Amino acid sequence: MLLRHTPKEITERSALMINPAKTCQPIGAMYAALGIHGCLPHSHGSQGCCAYHRSALTRHYKEPVSAATSSFTEGSSVFGGQANMLQAIENIFAVYNPVIIAAHTTCLSETIGDDLKQIRKKAITEGKIPEGKYMISASTPSYVGSHVTGFSNMVKSMAGLAESTGKKNGKVNVIPGWVEPSDMEEIKRLTNMLGVKTILFPDTSGVLNGPLSGEYKMFPDGGTTVEELISAGDSIGTLALGEWCSGDAARTLDTQNKVPCQVLDMPFGLKATDRFIDALRIMGGVTVPDELSMERGQLVDMISDMHQYLYHKKVALVGDPDQLIAMTEFLVSMDMCPVHIVTGTPGKAFEARIKEITKDMPFEVNVKAKGDMFLLHQWIKNEPVDLIMGNTYCKYIARDEDIPLVRWGFPILDRQGHQYFPTVGYKGALRLLEKILGALQDRKDRDDPETTFELVL
Amino acid sequence: MATTKKKMVQWDPAHVKAELLSKYPTKVARKRSKQIMINEALENETPEITANVRTTPGIITMRGCTYAGCKGVIMGPTRDIVNIVHGPIGCSFYAWLTRRNQTDAGTDGANYMNYCFSTDMQDSDIIFGGEKKLAQAIQEAYDLFHPRSIAVFATCPVGLIGDDIHTVTKRMKEKFGDCNVYAFSCEGYKGVSQSAGHHIANNQVFRHIVGENDAEKPGKYKINLLGEYNIGGDGFEIDRIFKKCGITNIATFSGNSTYDQFASAHKADLNAVMCHRSINYVADMLETKYGIPWIKVNFIGADATAKSLRKIAQYFGDQEFIDQVEAVIAEEMPKVLEARADVRTRTEGKTAMMFLGGSRAHHYQELFAEMGMKVISAGYEFAHRDDYEGRQVIPDLKVDADSRNIEELEVEADETRFKPRKSVEEIKALEDAGYEFKKYDGLLPDMDKDTLIIDDLNQYEAEKMVELMKPDIFCAGIKEKYSIQKLGVPMKQLHSYDSGGPYAGFKGAVNFYHEIDRLVNSKVWSYMKAPWQNNPQLSASYGCE
Questions:
Q1: Does the annotation mark B198 as catalytic?
Q2: Distance CA A25, CA A150 (A)
Q3: ipTM of this model?
Q4: What is the Cβ-side half-sphere exposure of residue A14, based on CA atoms within 13 angstroms?
Q5: Of A277, A281, B349, B430, which has the highest C-beta tally within 10 A?
Q6: How far is A215 from chain B (nearest CA, A)?
């Protein structure tokens, strides 16, 4: 057994986190920053932070992830990291020449009280940021929130670049939240299909799912341009997908630039996609084309065709709040039963929302924001499930308990496809459904006795 | 940006060096110039290489931090110690199963390697201190698992807010009575790279664990294997060979290790050091305190493995043992030579670059040489000068502010347990016969003239080198992997091996030959351009012509 020391009996833990369902803020800030075209993320802290975040993102995307660091030593930790940051800015523009640096703090620089906004001002005064180049920053202390919080904070800083010229650009800002590059691409396909002009930020498509062509571009063609971010202040409205990832940025545009916003769920599954498309239609003043209604219908068709394999199947879920809310709703909408749900990102609202979505389910739901995967495993030991959905670390539980696993979320370190094939929208929901059914039916085929083994499922 | 098109056969090292430096601001160029060395160049302005110095902020380095060296590298592969990281969640999360250390705990042995433990510090802990939470976390771990030992690792904020982790762990150890609890002050900002973390880990393992178990260990030819981390199963292969030879491995530091192995390490009669950089401190301390001599070995490469086994056998000097080692080598080598002869037809003359760790960029030269491949440039990520130039430079090493922060453990001979394993005469006789104790020559002597040796290579330089020197394969870590491969050059991770392994020992050598053959001869590198990109002119002709 891989997790042989995990007891079935659940005891209260107040200090020890075991097998976390979250990681720290800076990696979220780094991922968000990679969704700006020509951006070099910068980690203001020890070298290790930057190395760890780059490694984790690289293992997930199998793509180069460039980011710089302030390389703190003991001296800078005592005297402050301003000198390191200023030196870094100078070197970055000289050697790598990005359009923009997106810097974030770490627990180290936050604890000693470094202020990136003030350092940026000093850099401007000293002429260290060349003409036509930009720097933004986000405060991302690792001891508050989670990677989701860090993502949200950097996206909010991106919104800070928006300016109002007084003349509307006729576009809708779409803030997709922490989804895969493939999902961002799919959101663009959907908005194009509707004929709504959008500014999507961040946008990691074309950045973290790039081609192999014999050429290395440190700054790939993809990403939201700085011009687009500036122009976001002139948009007719903002759709934020996911309260935890995107809400703050949308509200920043609302208060700062008077761009009205609507915060929706992430468009995973039928109902959340319905709401997204409908909101887009109304905000953009367009009609939904038949092709999209067709895609929706195909999804409904598949749910009805395969309902017998889904009905009342128990699922354990681990992931981030926005994703889990939409996924829980999707599963419940197909009469599946997500019975154990854990996220590492704190927030009471999460638990309340999950309880609301699952209130008519015939099973009790265990839900914990600020939980961990050790607890999830114990819940599973006490009440077994038919399926686990979550990141790659779930495979240790899945193997020990012999439960099928659908990989979904971050990080996925051992399977491919997430970079290229979306799980948002109706097409994405079809793919999710294909994966769920595949896992359940593979298991059925493995476990059915020879007498009842069936050709047609 | 760089593209790889036509193979350039010749390059001039001075030109490459000048190119690498040309884009840097003056101060950076001056510093990097001392870390880029043309090997054995007579008029080289940098007769010695600068290493183990700070990375310039903003330069995209391959390096990590002290915590990574301590928790990730040295203590990560221990399976029956509950390793609790005291800090915000990230540090523990990123070190969770990502280094491919393998272990064999049997069906019921203690194995916490698949777990990730953290105190998940919150802002209130930063403000009011985290000692109480740490004590509570240790208590919870003890209550849940009753482990033999609990280790605590400090992350950056812990040092800054002044949590006294050593007092907390000492108190908990006394409270439990049956569980050894100790802490590592391995805050990420200490030192200039992972290397400082290795040193801190070595010190605490020696101080708190080594020597704890005085029970006699059965077996003959008892050694410790230092600096072997069982990545991809390397340690398993070495242990297989040891077993066959009749060598008793008391403790591996720290691949597939247990608490008791460390605790019994002083029972060995010889220390065989693999990774000199990460563990030579323990080797020195074991010699001073317990009288166990150490030798440098290398089990990467079949010839190197045979040589290392012979070296171990020669130390013990027992003819039966020497014969057994020869018999094992004779049995293992034919398969290796067969595989080597096969791949060599496809790998001979190809070139490689390696920028790794503090020993691996040296060790793997043997394997490439066995395949007829030439390493045209190499360097370390976190080595010190002695890893480049040899241990004889240690007395001349400058102790700078960053090194001074890392504790040097003062060790003396143990009053009761110090026992020289060889008499002065025996040692002398061995040395007269050409036997080398405590000797490591470093990377430079094994690299050809006019190759480039580069310390703390960064992303910009890596890309530029590939563009200018066009190696057939590049070896570094995960962060470097895909930017190199985008250029159409295969990249092999030699920290964690991507997938696969072992590459140590005899079977490992065969695995490595096949792996490199696969990489440098893969068809995929010929697919970079589509037909219409290779031949963009429009020229129409009729099908019937």
A1: yes
A2: 4
A3: 0.97
A4: 7
A5: A277
A6: 5
Residue type, B257: S
Spatial distance between the Cα atoms of B354 and B366, rounded to a whole number of angstroms: 12
Q: Could you say which residues of chain A have pLDDT below 70?
A: none
**pLDDT above 50: residue B4:** no
Nearest CA in chain B to A58: B479
Q: Write down the pLDDT at residue B2.
A: 42
Mean pLDDT for B122-132 is: 98
DSSP string, A410-441: S---S---TTTS--SHHHHHHHHHHHHHHHHH
Kindly report the CATH number that applies to the domain delimited by A299-452. Answer: 3.40.50.1980
**Catalytic position from the list B99, B166, B514, B518:** B99
Instruction: Give yes or no: B186 in active site.
Output: no
Mean pLDDT (chain B, rounded): 94
pTM of the model: 0.97
Identity (one letter) of the amino acid at B202? Answer: N
Looking at chain A, the domain(s) classified CATH 3.40.50.1980 span 25-159, 172-293, 299-452
Angstrom CA distances, A111 to A29, B7, B465, stand at 18, 51, 39
Residue of B nearest to A96 (CA): B460
To the query of whether residue B65 is one of the catalytic residues in this protein, the response is yes
Which residues in chain B are contacts of A55 at CB distance < 8 A? 94, 98, 477-479
Is B509 a catalytic site residue? Answer: no
Q: How confident is the model at residue B539 (pLDDT cuts 50, 70, 90)?
A: low
Is residue B542 scored above 70 in pLDDT?
A: no
- The predicted structure's pLDDT at residue B536: 77
In this predicted structure, the answer to whether residue B179 has a pLDDT above a threshold of 80 is yes
The pLDDT confidence band at residue B398, using thresholds 50, 70 and 90, is: confident
Q: Rounded to a whole number, what is the distance in Å from the CA of B191 to chain A's nearest CA?
A: 6
Amino acid at A148: V
| CB atoms B157 and A107 under 8 Å | yes
Interface contact flag, B57 A51, Cβ < 8 Å:
no
Q: Which residues of A touch B115 (CB under 8 A)?
A: 3, 5, 18-19, 374
Q: Do B189 and A76 touch (CB under 8 A)?
A: yes
- What is the tens place of the pLDDT at every residue in A138-181? 999 999 999 999 999 999 999 999 999 999 999 999 999 999 99
Q: Which CATH number fits domain A172-293: 3.60.130.10, 3.40.30.10, 1.10.606.20, 3.40.50.1980?
A: 3.40.50.1980
pLDDT at B280: 94
Complete domains list, chain B, with CATH: 66-188 (3.40.50.1980)
- What is the rounded distance in angstroms from the CA atom of residue A102 to the CA atom of residue A139? 11
User: Which fold, A25-159?
Assistant: Rossmann fold (3.40.50)
Residue A111 to residue B160, Cβ atoms within 8 A: yes
Interhelix angle B319-347/B302-316, rounded to 10 degrees, is 170
Among A2, A4, A19, select the one facing B116 at the smallest CB separation. A19
Percentage of chain B modeled with pLDDT above 90: 91
Report how far residue B210's alpha carbon sits from residue B262's, in angstroms, rounded to the nearest whole number: 5
State the pLDDT confidence band at B399, using cuts at 50, 70 and 90. confident
What percent of chain A is modeled with pLDDT above 90? Answer: 99
Contact between B251 and B264 (Cβ < 8 Å): yes
**A-chain residues within 8 Å CB-CB of B143?**
11
